[in-house]
Amino acid sequence: MPKKALITGITGMVGSHLADYLLDNTDWDIYGMCRWRSPLDNVQHLLPRVNAKDRVYFLDGDLTDYVSLVNVVEQSKPDYVFHLAAQSYPATSFTAPLQTLDTNILGTERLLEALRHHPTVDPVIHVCSSSEVFGRVPKEKLPIGEECSFHPASPYSISKIGTDLIGRFHAEAYGQKCLTTRMFTHTGPRRGDVFAESSFAKQIAMIEAGMLPPVVKTGNLQSLRTWADVRDAVRAYYLLVTTNPVAGEYYNIGGSYSCTVEDMLNYLISRSTVSEIKVEQEASRVRPLDADLQLPDTQKFQTHTGWKPQISFEQTMNDLLDYWRAKVRAKENFLQR
Theoretical Cys-Cys bridge with 153: which of 140, 205, 291, 332, CB 3.0 to 4.6 Å? Predict the structure, then answer.
């Protein structure tokens, strides 16, 4: 009997790549929780399998509705849970703080309670927090270890601190097999265009197609980031739940290549077929507060699982740019953001 994995947020960038990885590397059945209105762009390639009930099953659920989560747990009876669903855009959290807090904090509590109260399931649960919990970190605390203090820089950051602590609390108080990750910046194909590097890649692809003038609009370019590929990230998540999982543990995970957002943009521009592209900062793209030093110490996770990033920064960015070029060639219509 194959094991069963529940992925909340399967239609997102990370959830869809995780489904791909598990289909290719395990014999597990995959249950993907998504809202009835969730865009299916990232999982188009999975829909034939969903329709044929071939190892992939979509379940209607919403983190703001406890009854729906009870139903999802009953239908999936998972051996593993990857809790990826969230309001995941830091910038949006400034304009929708209540929805962000409800979805990410209370939504995590609802899910863990639904799992806790089911009479027959006791899964290994991956609670996906974020490096944003660390927020504004002084230079002397770099690289950021697991015990670095939290200094939130957005309502999103606050919501992920709640997510982080709830997962660890459920492990300690109720004995649930919760493990928490703080994944640092990760990107690649299917990245939403509200994130800086994906917005830049989309704009460049549109410039190449003559859909925009040769100007990339930006926010803060001075933030320092360590970059990882989403395909390395989902491999890490698989190892997290299968390599001697220790309930209540928490790990930083991230890439090995660090540079500023400006350096990342300059690399993308260097790969463009348009020789002269200008850069302009737009006030609307600048956050009121920013987590501007995001360099992780990932030794704890690497020592426990043996995981190391394998995909280079250059390949990640090239693949992201090619992803947007393909969407532009398909003549899709886009918001200019």
Answer: 291
